[in-house]
Write a structure and sequence with these properties.
binds NADPH dihydro-nicotinamide-adenine-dinucleotide phosphate; Rossmann fold; 6-stranded parallel β-sheet; globular; 15 strands; Quinone Oxidoreductase, Chain A, domain 1; ER; Zn-ADH-like_protein; Alcohol dehydrogenase; 9 helices; 326 residues; alpha/beta; acryloyl-CoA reductase (NADPH) activity; 2 domains
Length: 326
Amino acid sequence: MFRALVVTKTGNDTQTALRELNEDSLPDGDVDVDVLYSTLNYKDALAITGRGPVVKSYPMVPGIDMAGRVSASRHPDFRPGDEVVLNGWGVGESHWGALAEKARLKGDWLIRRPAAFTPRQTMAIGTAGYTAMLAVTALERHGLEPGDGPVLVTGATGGVGSVAVMVLAKLGHSVAAVTGRPEHGDYLRHLGAAEILDRAEFAGPAKPLARERWAGAIDNVGSHTLANVCAGLRRGAAVAACGLAGGMDFPATVAPFILRGVALLGIDSVYRPRAEREAAWSRLGELLDPALLEEATSEIGLGEAVEAASALLDGRTRGRIVVDAH
Ligand code: NDP
């Protein structure tokens, strides 16, 4: 038997509870893993609370990422005792996930634990941090270089935002952090932000074009915020669109694209090939200061995840939330 969070649905009502499950009930997969740490990402919070259409079938064990130890393997790349990391691949959405003591997964989805990090540190980074790295890399591929000018990060106190601020600052960029919670300004400065901006500045309907300010941007909010970010990008600059914390809509005009040649770079962390994942994790190993990462991390147990999920969606959490699953 093992403990897992289980999401069920009756009519329109979602219930999530910690349950004891039998290992026989685990889904198909060729690697069995003892989960050491998982995390609470925005998507997990949507799955747990039922506030967004994340779960594709019920009952579902949520949890899109984990660090764990292989207990049994029928996959040629993994043996019992190997430490592995998982992000995405529909786990916690259509395949039982990692907010549990055990998971059965496909070996093709797993990477080895990056040598630079302990299992707990990999989950302090989690899918949010790995996504921030993908976004920074996308901006660099588009041509962004340190010294180009301020790089904007929206939803800055969140998981993706906090890691994005740390990584961009470490690379030598001047980071402008947008937050709705100015009381966390010192936290953001400590992570490396040079400037703190009020979320309200980006919240209303966007003009087609605004003053050219940003050399690049990472957006976690969507909706009017993303439209305002696009309108304020400098000629030829790009925004990496990661999230929808403010809404899934995109009420913008084409003006920034056709008059300033700006680019909208979509970031999907879920279905990246293994080589890209390993490259992102390896760069995080070079760029993240473990002490700073720890300051952006809090830890809860499996039994606290339901309450924490509501707090996260209500914007009452900060940084990354690690879930101790063992
Ligand atoms: P968090 O909840 O940790 O952070 C989101 C932040 O957005 C909050 O801390 C808050 O920052 C800000 N925010 C929240 N609500 C609103 C609102 N209504 N309007 C404006 N700003 C708001 O989530 P994550 O960092 O884990 O994820 C951020 C987004 O990225 C999510 O939408 C998530 O789904 C998405 N995501 C996408 C991935 C991908 O593959 N594309 C992978 C991982 C995440 P503040 O208080 O500082 O303003």
